[in-house]
Design a protein that fits this description.
The structure holds two protein chains of two kinds. By secondary structure, chain A is mainly alpha-helical. In chain A, about 75% of the residues lie in helices and about 0% in strands. Chain B is about 75% helix and about 0% strand. The chains are: A mainly alpha, B mainly alpha.
Chain lengths: ~140, ~500
């Protein structure tokens, strides 16, 4: 299932890229325009994507995906969700709060105790904010408080 | 400036307190990330890149390169003591290194690995001095057609040599090249594939992509395991000395490994990893007792450990003399120089000698520091492995997030980081090597610029482009490397097939 879905997604992406590339001014071979090189790349991409799809549907098993058990999968999904949540919340709640919540949640789900998770969250959020915002002058959002 | 004069000047730069300190920090961080499975040198270099923006370009280069070759030292420690590769260049060391540990010769294995790395590092630096200045003299005559040919040839070779199927590698190259076209076109200033986003007009930044693929993705792999306890073999300091017999057996493998490593490093591809496999196979072939490999042969540790260090040195040559990186690690080094407005290439050696020679001299010093760090202090680094992995993993994720944001204070970079983190994780699950994508992303804009300039020169004639002697030769060599091995295999298969099924071989 997955082995066939991946090349199909790839084909769609590459197709979109080709369509967009064709809309750019192509120019001539002697005076290549901004669309010249993208079109060449897009054609190469289409060829390899087609070849990848063909080999997937001929049943060539290029990749053996090892199935994860439920607990492992949950840990990965939670980590990714936490990353996305961090990016979404950062502009609104500010860096110190987002970093604290991120570290505490991820650690807790990786198997640490609540106390360890909360303490590490506070320490890492405060120290990284101190280093990057105060010392290195990175304008990390502070949030509404 | 001749090599000796240059080197003397280089030492005067590298021995400045700031540069010495940068070198120390680099090799220290390199050793630590080398020891730690999960986070590798490339991720660490990307993480520390923003901190170098305020430094002198030579200092930045010295520190970041220190991480790269330092990791080759650290990686062997974990391979030998824990039976888990600290980073990819030390996978082969597992085979005999861990067996030596089981037989109580862990100390000897560690010493031979460190000394081998040191010898190879030193040989490599001499190699850089000679090869880079020579290549730079040649490259001064290169025009856009030659540079186009080299980047194209590099990508083809990289696809051939990176592990796994060539089709997968081509897919990665295509994606990387396509990503490289996002943003403002440098010649016409037209915005391409930006979907109206102002931030995307700057293009997709390399560093968050690398942090995602080599930082976030590796942590996600660690997250699968949850909390894991590592079993670490204990080493006593006095056990570190190899016996005279062990030294004798290691000498030639180290010498051969250094040369093999340096030469592999010159070729586009996953040089550090590839060189260890070549060296191991070579030692097995040279050995009178090849059947004993895998049971704790010191040759199987000495050769590969020397070669991966030689390879990191070799990989610097195309970067320093042509300005073309062929691996994610050298791509970061290029990024560090470009930030300072420096374009590595044939002119850099003569125009910015303090950067080139200071860097070369720092590699001598760095290798010496690493020898000291990794032998008497090996116990200290091993204790890094006792740190709770899940806490380290979480902190690395947080550092990636802050680091990506701090590059240009942009939320876009954060999203690029997360997207490529998930993408890199998926690639590892599908067993696809992501490095062709990273290299293509760096080389893509170079390739487009040189292609357009070259076609402008030849008035649109592709034949005139290929007919330039140097550009043509490079392309022909690349084509030979790409199609040669499968053709030879096909020819051999036919020859062997003939006696069995005559006549049918013509049809296949």
């Amino acid at each position: 299932m997955l082995a066939r879905a991946v090349p199909l997604v790839l084909l769609v992406v590459v197709g979109v890229y080709l369509t967009l590339a064709l809309r750019l001014p192509f120019g001539t071979a002697a005076r290549p325009g901004p669309g010249f090189y993208p079109v060449i790349i897009a054609m190469f991409a289409v060829v390899v994507a087609l070849a990848a799809t063909a080999s997937a549907f001929r049943g060539v098993r290029s990749a053996v995906v090892v199935e994860l058990d439920h607990a492992s999968r949950r840990r990965v999904v939670i980590s990714v969700a936490a990353l996305v949540a961090f990016c979404l919340c950062l502009p609104w709640v500010g860096y110190p709060a987002a970093a604290f919540a991120f570290v505490a949640v991820v650690l807790r789900y990786l198997g640490a105790r609540w106390t360890t998770a909360l303490i590490t969250g506070v320490l890492s959020s405060a120290s990284s904010y101190g280093i990057f915002a105060a010392l290195l002058d990175v304008p990390l959002p502070r949030g509404p408080w | 400036m001749g090599p000796l004069e240059g080197l003397a000047y280089g030492f005067s730069v590298a021995l400045l307190p700031t540069n010495l300190f940068a070198c120390f920090v680099g090799v220290l961080v390199g050793t630590i990330v080398g020891v730690l499975p999960g986070i590798g040198p490339v991720g660490a270099m990307a993480l520390l890149l923003p901190s170098t923006f305020a430094m002198h370009p030579a200092t930045a280069l010295i520190m970041l390169a220190g991480i790269y070759y330092g990791a080759m030292y650290g990686g062997s420690t974990t391979s030998i003591l824990v039976n888990v590769p600290g980073e990819a260049g030390s996978v082969v060391t597992l085979l005999d290194g861990y067996q030596m540990t089981r037989r109580g010769r862990a100390g000897a294995a560690l010493t031979v690995a460190a000394v081998g790395s040191f010898v190879a590092g030193t040989v490599g630096v001499i190699g850089i001095m000679l090869a880079a200045s020579w290549l730079a003299d040649v490259a001064i005559q290169f025009g856009p057609p030659e540079y186009f040919a080299i980047t194209l040839a590099g990508l083809l070779l990289l696809s051939r040599l990176s592990g796994g199927s060539i089709l997968n590698a081509f897919v990665m190259v295509a994606l990387g090249l396509a990503l490289g076209t996002v943003g403002m076109d440098s010649i016409s200033a037209l915005r391409r594939f930006t979907f109206g986003s102002v931030q995307l007009a700057q293009g997709i930044e390399l560093v968050p992509v690398i942090m995602g693929i080599y930082g976030v993705a590796e942590v996600l792999l660690l997250a699968e395991e949850g909390i894991a306890k590592t079993q670490i073999a204990k080493v006593k300091l006095r056990e570190l000395l190899p016996t005279r017999e062990e030294w004798r057996r290691s000498t030639m493998p180290i010498a051969r490994g250094s040369v093999v490593g340096f030469l592999t490093g010159l070729v586009p591809g996953p040089a550090a990893v590839l060189s260890t496999f070549i060296s191991y196979t070579l030692e097995k072939k040279m050995s009178k007792t090849p059947e004993k490999f895998g049971t704790g042969m010191i040759e199987g540790v000495a050769g590969p450990e020397a070669s991966n260090n030689g390879a990191t040195a070799g990989a610097m040559v195309p970067l320093l003399s042509l300005g073309i990186p062929f691996s994610p690690a050298t791509a970061i080094l290029l990024g560090a120089l470009v930030v300072h407005g420096l374009q590595p290439g044939p002119l850099m050696i003569s125009q910015r000698p303090e950067v080139f020679w200071g860097f070369v001299a720092s590699m001598y010093i760095g290798n010496l520091m690493l020898l000291i760090l990794n032998l008497p202090l090996v116990g200290l680094f091993v204790s890094v492995l006792r740190l709770p992995q899940h806490i380290l993993a979480t902190l690395v994720l947080l550092l990636c997030l802050v680091g990506a944001f701090s590059l240009s204070n942009s939320f876009l970079d954060l999203w690029v980081l997360v997207v490529f983190g998930v993408f890199g994780y998926a690639l590892r699950k599908l067993r696809v090597d992501p490095s062709p994508l990273v290299v293509a992303l760096v080389l893509g804009p170079m390739m487009e610029k040189t292609l357009r300039q070259a076609l402008f020169l030849t008035q649109g004639s592709v034949i005139d482009l290929v007919a330039r002697p140097l550009a043509g030769t490079i392309l022909i060599l690349a084509a030979a490397a790409l199609f040669g091995p499968p053709l030879v295999r096909l020819a051999r298969a036919k020859r062997f097939a003939k006696p069995i099924s005559q006549g049918s071989s013509a049809s296949d």
